[in-house]
Write a structure and sequence with these properties.
By secondary structure, the chain is an alpha/beta fold. The protein has a single domain, classed as Ribonuclease H-like superfamily/Ribonuclease H (Nucleotidyltransferase, domain 5, 2-Layer Sandwich), CATH 3.30.420. It is 38% helix and 31% strand. The protein is built from 4 helices and 5 strands; from the N terminus they run βββαβααβα. A 5-stranded mixed beta sheet has the order 3-2-1-4-5, with helices on both faces. Helix 1 packs parallel to helix 3. It starts with 17 loop residues before the first strand and ends with a helix.
Length: 154
């Protein structure tokens, strides 16, 4: 299985392009945490979702975004998938550029690798948080966190 994290390698064409954008958020570190993903196919948003995970660190939330996004992306392709995140730590850990020293993150990375087997190829790429799809995922995270907060205070 090939993992690519450099965008200049084997760019996808519009016909096979399924891109998963992920984001995680934690209010406090650790604190209330949420994940979100946006799946883009053929240049348009095909799916998006978010979830609340309780008290966690931002890095844990970022991994949960990738895991949940990979699960959902199976409905759109079993071929090539590009995963884009603004979390350089997660991207670099999943591409082997950084060692994973924390056991709980290693367990989450193992789950990502297990899910990657459902695709012919998965590439990881860091993108700036200003990217429109990352901003959408970030908004979904914050909306989820706001909903959870309101629910506890009613």
């Amino acid at each position: 299985m090939m993992q690519r994290d450099r965008p200049e390698e084997a760019p996808m064409t519009a016909t096979d392009a399924v891109v998963l954008y992920t984001d995680g958020a934690s209010r406090g570190n650790p604190g209330d945490a949420a994940w979100a993903y946006v799946i883009v196919r053929g240049g348009a948003v095909a799916a998006s979702s978010s979830g609340y995970i309780g008290t966690a660190t931002n890095n844990v939330a970022e991994y949960h975004a990738v895991i949940n996004g990979l699960r959902a992306a199976q409905a759109f392709t079993q071929g090539r998938l590009k995963v884009r995140s603004d979390s350089e730590l997660v991207v670099r850990q999943l591409t082997g550029r950084y060692r994973i020293t924390k056991e709980h993150l290693a367990d989450l990375a193992d789950e990502v690798r297990r899910l990657m087997r459902n695709f012919s190829e998965v590439g990881f790429e860091s993108v700036p948080r200003e990217h429109p799809c990352i901003q959408l995922a970030d908004r979904l995270c914050n909306e989820r966190l706001d909903t959870e907060r309101r629910g506890r205070h009613e």
